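for the recovery benchmark. tokens below, seq after
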């Protein structure tokens, strides 16, 4: 199994703040092409960028990201939900 962290909430957070993709990239000092790649799922944010995004938006991990287990053989995906896990525990 492969673990992927996807920026599934990034577009909503960015739009809520009224930021363009270019403006957000500028604020984070990253390439302006990286934001649309993150929002489309073509790229995965690394640990430093995840931290920078959470700090910038002043939010929790779960507000911006989704953790997905991917079976490399079948491409089957299972979304891990930390919030549900915390409530059940």
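predicted aa per position
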């Amino acid at each position: 199994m492969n673990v992927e962290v996807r920026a599934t909430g990034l577009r909503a957070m960015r739009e809520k703040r009224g930021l363009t993709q270019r403006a957000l990239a500028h604020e984070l000092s990253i390439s302006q092409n990286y934001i649309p790649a993150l929002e489309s799922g073509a790229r995965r944010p690394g640990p430093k960028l995840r931290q920078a995004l959470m700090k910038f938006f002043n939010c929790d991990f779960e507000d911006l990201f989704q953790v997905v287990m991917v079976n490399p053989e079948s491409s089957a995906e299972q979304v891990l939900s930390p919030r549900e896990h915390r409530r059940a525990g």
